[in-house]
Design goal:
Length: 87
């Protein structure tokens, strides 16, 4: 355990950021899962809506620094490929 006041504060800040990143990553995974479930069900219209939502969540995560922007773009591109194959 840290003894220095600034180090104790950094630990608290890191805990807050870690919790936020977990929450954001979970939301992204859920959005992607719902999109893929819509594709498997064969519902293309619903899949399009879920794709837009998933893309939004992924890009928000990248904007906040949870994902690197290239990682986010790659995720979106892979989802778009799956959607285009289904259409």
């Amino acid at each position: 355990m840290a003894n220095i006041k600034s180090a104790k504060k950094r630990i608290k800040v890191i805990d807050v950021k870690t919790a936020r990143n977990r929450k954001v990553k979970s939301a992204v995974k859920t959005a992607i899962r719902r999109f893929e479930e819509a594709l498997v069900a064969g519902n293309v219209e619903e899949a399009k809506a879920k794709f837009q939502f998933a893309e939004k969540k992924i890009m928000q995560a990248a904007a906040k620094g949870t994902f690197h922007k290239n990682n986010a773009s790659r995720k979106v591109a892979r989802l778009a490929i799956k959607l285009n194959k289904a259409i």
